[in-house]
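Anyone able to model this chain together with NAP?
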Amino acid sequence: MSTTPGVTDCTGGLAVVGAVCIGALLLTLLCWCWRAFKTFILSEVWRVDLKKYGGWAVVTGATSGIGKAYAKELAKRGLDIVLISRSNEKLKAVAEEIEAQYGRRTMTIQADFTGGGSIYPAIKEALSGMDLGILVNNVGMTYNVKLQRFHEVQNSEQIVNCNMLSVTQMTRIVLPDMVKRGSGLIINIGSATAAKPCSLISLYCSTKAFVKYFSQCLETEYKSQGITVQCVAPMVVSTNMTWNCPVNCLVKSTSDFARQALNTVGYSSYTNGCISHGLQSVVFGLAPGWIKSLAYLIKRRRQVKEDLHEE
Ligand SMILES: NC(=O)c1ccc[n+]([C@@H]2O[C@H](COP(=O)([O-])OP(=O)(O)OC[C@H]3O[C@@H](n4cnc5c(N)ncnc54)[C@H](OP(=O)(O)O)[C@@H]3O)[C@@H](O)[C@H]2O)c1
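re: yes, here you go
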């Protein structure tokens, strides 16, 4: 059977396009696997010495959850720790725990990050003259009620102050000395919810999108000056914010998360912090928007039922 020359050319062309596409896809997959291997596996073996950044680390929101776990892990790796949170009592307890467990020095600063710009001069004063190598901008909050439409949110100004203003102002406090020394590490805790728009937590996930974008901008601005800026975007970690849900292969414990996430310093400027959250984030990224909306609507329905039951 004979084929016309035009049809043969066309089939040959399509085969080349197909081969190029498959090749590009395989190359992308290979790059992704190498990045994941480097960030989550290699980093377990070759850890960056965090003491090279300076003697002290500042952690905001350091009395529970992810912040407390970062503070303890940093102390374990040889840094002295400045803890900042609202409750003096809790600050004292965590400071004593760190001193007893790791023999590091601690300092505590009581501050409420919902308070707006007026709180920062006192924090700056308290931190002045210290050898600050690391800042962990961890403090963050979400709605008073679990899930809400934006017009129903009561604490929107507090969320903006706590999740965004704290990141910019704390960074402004530590950066000048880091620039002078030509060394420093700033870790900003974002959230995997910032990867794509999410309904019923729109303000929360938008503040976290700001954290991601701001971190990436700073990283390009200060990398050449010896300052590393990393954004860590967790999925679910078992803390007060997530109602201390049980730890399993998807939900991380705070200590495990902080240890693995700190290993990724120097390997990745944007990370989900651990391999489990990295894989979940890929799946989350592929899911069409309506699936996520459906999940939220189901949760919302459950919540309304619970509230009615409580009444
Ligand atoms: N847990 C997760 O699954 C998850 C997922 C993605 C992202 N994140 C992010 O991770 C960060 C930490 O979350 P978490 O789950 O560890 O929260 P958490 O368990 O609720 O802990 C929050 C910490 O911040 C302090 N804090 C809260 N509001 C404050 C304020 N207005 N001023 C000063 N300190 C304040 C709290 O201490 P005091 O009460 O003593 O002040 C506590 O130490 C947040 O930025 C959050 O958005 C968490």
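DSSP finds nine helices and seven strands in the chain.
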